[in-house]
Amino acid sequence: MVRAVQAGFAKYFPDRKAILVNSDGGSKDGTMDVVEKLVIEDFQPFLISQRENLLSKIVTPYHGIPGKGSAFRTIFQVAKELKVKACAVVDSDLRSITPEWIDLLIRPVLDRDFDFVSPYYLRHKYDGTITNSIVYPVTRALYGKHIRQPIGGDFGFSGRLAEFYLTKDVWESDVARFGIDIWMTTTAVANDFKVCQSFLGAKIHAAKDPSSDLSAMLTQVVSALFMLMEEYPDKWKAVRATDPVPLFGFQFSVGLEPIKVNLERMISMFRLGITELGAILQEIVSPETFAGLEEAAKGSAFSLSDELWSRLIFDYALACHRKTMSAAHILKTLTPLYLGKVASLVQDMAESSADEVEARLEDLCGAYEKLKPYLIEKWQ
What we know:
alpha/beta, Spore Coat Polysaccharide Biosynthesis Protein SpsA, Chain A, globular
């Protein structure tokens, strides 16, 4: 990752002053040493002229609540102090990053005056299931922008937006621990900053089987999503249509590493959840939604419709809004239901191509958008 960033700045921004910041949480795996010491001695293999001025580096521990959000806050502060024009953040576990990513995340800010660049990459159809089933369609329905990867982890942004992020009073909240990705995306959109996407090809990192224990991540992401709904109700209630946002970069097909899923385990956990959590679920979701869940659990041909799933997620948002019980208790019950929807999507997409998967997710987004009036009415 460090080599790709160095090569990216050398190739695409040879006349710009650039700084690589490693905002480190005190890791003991040698990360800081790698960032400090790794220098590309010879740029010729990358077809890049040798640079006299090498990339500057800042390796610093971050302070405050441990988490990705606190690490990003340090980067925002560095950007403010240095009065940067454009900045990008990338996940450290990437195995598919190329020097072109640096250009695609930063140039829309420098040359086209965009404030926020969201990643658009191809992932295996069973990867990114929290994004596909909840975060993308909910964000799109609420705020009206087709931002395909709102929690992608790799973003570009302007110095102006970095300063704005620092003015928000969230750094002692859960955003500092987790939820920074969806917070950055939503904050940019809800405050009318100019947003776009850049096509980055494949995202290959440490992917997980969706049937494995993703409950903590699910709870964290959905909690942040619902928290933002509380902050911007006037904004999302006023949105009546959704629109694409500009997409930069040359789009191409890529080979993706396969992900194995345990379909039977996901369906079994869904059915067990309906049985064991039934009394609590009836306090969280509407009678109509609960009846649909019971019917799905009893059916021999398992399926969760898009309409049922969309209404369920909106019911969960409403339960958190009304404080039916603590948000932590509410969201802990979501995991088996989420696994049921993932299982249903896996069945639907088993023989689907990449384009067919996107068409299937377009249908899911449409279901959320159709049910948005239900959410607005009940939110009162």
